[in-house]
């Protein structure tokens, strides 16, 4: 996803949106832990060698690499909206020996692909950040052949749950939600996927849900360190400071709250996701 891009909404008006997270070290640290097994399990049973696959919003490239191995790297196309993000994907694919994967730079609202040219389209944590989620799904419907597969998964930020209650984490979630919405995003995208798919003209849609859970000492420390870094420095922190929603001392306090939460042996964190499998007719 890009730092800032402009597109047309489905209602015809202009919409400006920014990728809230950016590409700092604390963000990439998290994104590089994503695999097809932990982030696209709903898609895996539908993959076959030789399918033509499009991965939209490929980012750090780790999920892309797993999908490419399932269908064949020469049959896989990854797409990002800026050259900076595309280079992240290319670097990871090269590291894993999958340089045959094609990596394109384009806007998901206007895919540079012919109609009915793809067997499988995948988007993970993408629709929550785009200006027009229904428009992106309509584009996926256009390029995926009848009977093919569109697989989407997005987090449901307002449904995040943790134990024990920590006021600093309440402040973190409020600031994130406000910032994402100000950037034109939809942080409750997970619950909307079925409605968006139907609005895009997809009527053969199965919606499911799944979670990430952080409850071991190592997982808690990693998750807390990632969010403490994002909230106290980097693009997310800069956006919050520029908006006046919080001061640096507030963000530093929230970062300390994250790390304190992780040190509690009873602590747990649950991240719910909505996910769909849709088949164009």
TrEMBL record:
EC number in record: 2.1.1.-
Record keywords: Methyltransferase, Transferase
A GO term, aspect molecular function: methyltransferase activity
Keyword Secreted part of the UniProt annotation: no
One BP annotation, GO: methylation
UniProt keyword annotation of Methyltransferase present: yes
Enzyme category, top tier: transferase
Region of interest: Disordered: 1-21
The organism's place on the tree of life at top rank: Bacteria
Domain Methyltransferase type residue range list: 54-151
Protein name: Class I SAM-dependent methyltransferase
């Amino acid at each position: 996803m890009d730092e800032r891009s402009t597109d047309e909404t489905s209602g015809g008006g202009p919409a400006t949106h920014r990728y809230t997270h950016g590409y700092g070290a604390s963000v990439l640290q998290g994104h590089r832990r994503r695999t097809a097994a932990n982030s696209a399990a709903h898609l895996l049973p539908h993959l076959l060698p030789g399918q033509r696959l499009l991965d939209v919003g490929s980012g750090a490239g780790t999920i892309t690499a797993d999908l490419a191995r399932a269908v064949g790297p020469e049959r896989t196309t990854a797409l990002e909206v800026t050259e900076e993000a595309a280079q992240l994907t290319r670097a990871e694919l090269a590291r894993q020996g999958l340089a045959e994967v094609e990596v394109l730079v384009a806007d998901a609202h206007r895919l540079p692909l012919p109609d009915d040219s793809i067997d499988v389209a995948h988007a993970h944590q993408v629709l929550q950040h785009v200006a027009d989620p229904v428009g992106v799904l309509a584009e996926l419907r256009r390029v995926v052949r009848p009977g093919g597969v569109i697989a989407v998964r997005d987090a449901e930020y307002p449904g995040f749950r943790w134990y024990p209650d920590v006021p600093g984490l309440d402040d973190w979630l409020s600031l994130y939600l406000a910032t994402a919405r100000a950037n034109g995003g939809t942080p409750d995208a997970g619950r909307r996927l079925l409605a968006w798919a139907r609005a895009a003209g997809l009527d053969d849609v199965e919606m499911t849900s799944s979670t990430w859970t952080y409850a071991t000492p190592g997982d808690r420390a990693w998750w807390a360190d990632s969010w403490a870094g994002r909230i106290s420095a980097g693009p997310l922190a800069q956006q919050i400071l520029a908006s006046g929603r919080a001061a640096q001392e507030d963000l530093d306090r929230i970062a300390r709250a994250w790390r304190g939460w992780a040190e509690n042996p009873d602590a747990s964190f649950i991240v719910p996701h909505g996910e769909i499998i849709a088949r164009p007719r």
